[in-house]
Amino acid sequence: MKILIVGSGGREHAIAWKVAQSPKAEKIYCAPGNAGIAEYAECVDIGAMEFEKLVAFAKEKEIDLTIVGMDDPLVGGIVDAFEAEGLRVFGPRKNAAILEGSKAFSKDLMKKYGIPTAAYETFDDPEAALSYLETARFPIVLKADGLALGKGVLICNTPEEARDGVRQIMQDKKFGCAGNQMVIEEFMTGREVSVLSFVDGKTIKTMASAQDHKRAKDGDQGLNTGGMGNFSPTPFYTPEIDAFCQKYIFQPTVDAMASEGRPFKGVIFFGLMLTADGPKVLEYNARFGDPEAQVVLPRMKNDMVDVVEACIDGTLDQIDLEFTDEAAVCVVLASDGYPVSYEKGFPIRGLENFKGKEGCYVFHAGTKFDGQGQIVTNGGRVLGVTALGADLKEARANAYKAVELVDFDNKYFRHDIGKAIDEA
């Protein structure tokens, strides 16, 4: 098979790495890709939002299967564009990707179908939002309705912070048009857990659990980021919690989307909060998480292509999704200053140390070739260093050892990824 992957980050590198292991994958392309993905795929200089060019490329190269990794093209309707030309593509259609594309839609869906989530109100008028805050309980959470690179959420401890947050989101457009509408919801306390799942429109198969670290600095301080590290599985996601989620959250979400005439095929990412009142949905994403993909896919035993095709064909019920007993920890190496401002273009040293190193991987997020064959930094999140271990503590130790194998100027990372393991 000829396979095209759409995207350019660490998630897409992990997908390309996993797809390359399939005997069905004869030739892999990635648009636009990055320097790490180039090891497994031929990178093509077409942007993820250039649908017409991507469709034309897929037809010219007779691509058998396209896998879309990124949220923007999915929410923008790339799957619809490919299907209209008779091309085989993995991901939700536009009317299903709204599950991530609009927080107001997803909150209303959960309310309608009784799926556990935080209490909330939706606003498209900043003055109405400010008035609501006068009687609200604090802390409180403000969410830009649309896509904001995982950064459109503000946790406000005081009325002053909340009023300033409303102005940032709705008036100053800190997150662009994503802030045209806003959700204000109650602040939930508990453990945050991620569960990714494959869906074929009616059947859902969940992957191994994971736990993210969103804040930029140690001790969960600093600004929200796209993710500074991850581990899988999380010991806090017990079999009892899984049984509850399967019955009251996972399958009901798939059934709700089908009932709304928006059957979902692809990957649903469930962001959960394990509250004192039970698990509740924090957010949905309509694709693999990043860096969740970097800890979940290395543990998946199945052929990636088999699972993806089953989702497209509606035969996921015939797949027995399996994961190794090993644990995985990913530490993100970022450019100092991320997520606000940072420099790019620094040479990356030591990547060769990962060659043939079993159970230890480096997934490229923001990298490129500089024209002389040197790989340099090209983003806020640069690399995701992932290591496996017999248990989480061993995987964590292995990951931090591996972090020392690679270096670049302005290298920054959190030192406490997976530290919650010690509290389990």
Q: Which terms would index this structure?
A:
424 residues; alpha+beta; 28% strand; 5-stranded parallel sheet; 9-stranded antiparallel sheet
Tell me about this structure.
This protein has 424 residues and is α+β, with helices and mostly antiparallel strands. 29% of the residues lie in helices and 28% in strands. The protein contains twelve helices and 22 strands. It has helices at 10-19, 51-60, 71-76, 78-84, 94-101, 103-113, 126-133, 159-171, 239-259, 292-296, 304-313, 392-403; strands at residues 2-7, 27-32, 42-43, 65-68, 89-90, 120-123, 140-144, 153-156, 182-186, 191-200, 204-212, 215-217, 221-224, 229-232, 265-275, 278-285, 327-335, 360-364, 367-369, 375-377, 381-389, 411-412. Strands 10, 11, 14, 15, 16, 17, 18, 21 and 22 form a nine-stranded antiparallel beta sheet that branches. Helix 7 runs antiparallel to helix 8. The radius of gyration is 21 Å and the shape is globular. The termini are far apart. The relative contact order is 0.14.
